[in-house]
Structures are given as C-alpha cells and as structure tokens.
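User: I'm curious what two different proteins look like when written out as structure tokens. Can you demonstrate?

Assistant: Sure. I'll show them one after the other, since each token string lines up with its own sequence. Here's the first protein:
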Amino acid sequence: MFNSYLLTTLRFDESACTNCGMCLAVCPQGVFVPGKKAVQMAYTARCMECGACQLNCPAGALQVESGVGCASAMFGAALRGKKLDQKEECT
C-alpha cells in the first residue's frame, strides 16, 4: 500500500537536469538544494506533490503525480477554517 506520509510520487532525472535552479525557486516546501552539476533532492519527504517543479522545469527532469499532498494541504486548511498558507499553496 502506498503511504503518502512516507513516500512521494516525485521522480527526478538528474542526467536531464540543466541546473537552472527553477525548481529551487518554485518549490514551496524546499525539497531541492543547489548542486554542482545538477540540483539535488535533499528533502523528498517534504514534497506535497503540488506539481510546481514539474510545470516549471524547462528540461523535463521532474515528474510528479499531483494530488495527494496538495489535497492534504487543502483539506487541512479547510478544517482549520483558514486560507491556504503560502507553503501549502497548490498549483
């Protein structure tokens, strides 16, 4: 069974990465860190699967099935009676 609290659908093809840093700029959870030849996925468990990295990667090095984490953020905000925080924003 897929445990969305421990696993993520985020996949990164380091060989396709051009090290442009776009994922660093758009990821609301800070999953990526700078690297010498390519960015690095340092905090994969933080990924809420919003899809921002995939949508903004010009090299197509990132793939993610949007939904699970994004939906979790939306439900959490609704249950708290608040708007989505910037870190929880879904695209």
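Here's a second, unrelated protein for contrast:
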Amino acid sequence: MTTNWMGRRPVERYGTVVVGGGQAGLSAAHHLGRHGESCAVLEAGDRVGDQWRSRWASLRLFTSAKYDGLDGMPFPAAPWSFPTGGEMADYLEAYAAALDAPVLTGVRVDGVAATPDGWLVTAGDRSFAARNVVLATGTYQVPHLPAFAETLDSRIVQLHSAQFRDASQLPDGDVLVVGAGTSGADVALQARAAGHRVQLAGRHPGQIPFDVDGLANRLVMARLVLRFAFHRVLTVRTPMGRALRPMVLSRGAPLIRYRSKDLAAAGVERAPRVTAVRGGRPVLEDGRVLDVASVVWCTGYRHDYTWVDAPGTSTDEHGVLVHDRGVVAGTAGLYLVGLHFLYAMSSAMIHGVGRDAAHVARHVARRTGERQGELPAAPAVSPRSGRADEPARPAARRG
C-alpha cells in the first residue's frame, strides 16, 4: 500500500471501528457481525490478549471457566476451574481468530475525531474512516497515583499494580501495599508468601460472604451472585443499582476471591489509608509514619479521553464520557463498552460484557437502517438459550 503526499497511507474505511481488542472490543465486533455491520478492531498490543499476559504471573480469574466465555464460544476448561491470566489471553486470541472481522494488532490509536461524515481514527501513519466508533479501551487506561507519591524517598522502590509481575521485584524489607481491593489483596498475599512483612492500607471494600472455590459456590452462589445479583439486580435501572454504582466507581468492587480472614491468616497487617508523606516516608491516617523498603500502589486507574475530539460530549464526576448504556450523549455514532458499571455490576466482567456489546450493536444497526431508509433485521435467536443477547458461535473468518 503506497503512502499519500502527506506521508500517510490511504484512509481505510469501515462501517464501525472498534478501539481495543480485549474482551469488550471482541464482543462488540462479534455482535456487530451478527447485524451484518462491517467493522475492524484496532488493538495496540502485538498480540490479542497482551493486557492479560502483562499482569502478575500468579493471577487467576475470580470467576470460574463456566462464566469466562464470551458469547458464542465457551471457555475451553473444566467449568469450575479458575483460568490464569495467560489462559484468558490465549482464549481471546482464539476468539479473535474466529471472528468474521479483521483484528489489527500493533495499531495504537492516537486520535479519534468527529467529521461531517462520521469519524476519523488515526494510529501513527494509518487512518481509518468510519460512521461509528466503539471505544473498548476498558477501565485500565492511565495508572493513578496520589500526588504525594513523588515525594517519597528515592530509596523506596515504588510500583503501580500495572507494573507488578511478582514478588521478586521487591527488595528486602517491609512492603506497603496501598489499596485494599482485589489487586491489593492479591499483591499483599504474594509479598507475604515471599517472606516480607506486609501492611495493606486502605478502606475495606467489603467482601462476598462465601468461598468462590467452595461447593456452595458451585451449587448456588455463583449463579445467584454473578448471573442474578450482578447482572439483573444491580443495574442503573434499579434503585439498588443506582445507589451502589457511585460507591463501586469511587471505592472499587467488593473482594470476591479473598476475605479478611485469608489475609489475617497469611499474616498481612491491615492499616488505615495513606494520606501524606513526611520526611520521605508514608504517613497513615492515624498519624503513624512507616519505614518501608517498597510501596506497591494498587490505587486504580483514571480515564483519559483527551485523544477523543468529540464536540458536544462531556465527562461525569468519574471522568467517563456521559452516556446512556454505552451510547455517548451529545454526538452521534460514538459508543463505550467494557467499563465498570456501564449498565450493571457485571458490565466489566467477562460474563457481563456481551449484553452491553449487544445493546451497542443494536443501536449501530438501527442507525444504519435509518440511514438506508429501512429497519435493521432482528438478530437471530441463539438455539442454546432462546435469547437474542446470547448468540451462536462466532463465524469463521472468510478467506
């Protein structure tokens, strides 16, 4: 393909461009394909699934394989086993290969801009024109650190959870893990198992009151919590869901795999929030100053949409583009999938992302039908479930 006079390749055209090739982006491509919508998925990583491969080596999903498959392709493992991050990465790579849509890896998007005809997506020397754009970059965009982190003594090793792979990265001495959510609990247990004295700082986010590895989970609790409470009850359409959503977005979801007794049994010490730095050392909310060799910041991520030029849009108090169930307000043809509590507690979970993707795909198809002066065809109903939001296996890529 030759470049044009500006040094860029010719513009590549699709009905929809999906930015992000993780579980949300792939699910969106699958559902768009069911409506006959042409699309391309742009993935920054060299391989599909690299987001999972880059996380800590001991990572296991807190949902069993029974609930870890995307629409149309069950996860290839024993139903009540818990896949590793690497296994999930390989599954996503296989899912992408089965899609009837191009998944372009090594394409890092640097800009999305509204045009009179739709959207222009730029990625280095490549440009993509589309009537619609689905942002599937997920919740893990820009690692968040408190402003005072840069004033810690330079001799203290600092890592964000995005950089943490295993305890070998930690020097000898005490470890402070900041952030008591799922990632913080996992890192704290790893550091403790490696022989470090570990303090886990932050508010307790709450916990699921049963053992995810236990028999009760297999028989009752997984379906009750994951498929009913998280998927049906805790949504933006219910009073309970609307009350919970701000807390989840600001404090994180409750612990699922680990509980307080697991941390205590391992010897992990609980500590209040870190509020400042004094003399180069972290200060707790109760005034204690800690002498530690390393700090792992499990303080989450912040959203960044500075690369999206979409006049008429705005962000909410959590930094997310204002939307209605993934349909961005204030502009036409811009969508979100894969965010925490996009619609329900399950929205960013493997078993929940498909419903949001299906909703967005239906909206895209409706726009196409309106443009062509006809209504879009209704999606085929899955023979397995009899529901339109749980479709059949992804079609094999042609050619």
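A detail about the second structure: The chain has two domains: 12-141+303-371, 145-297.
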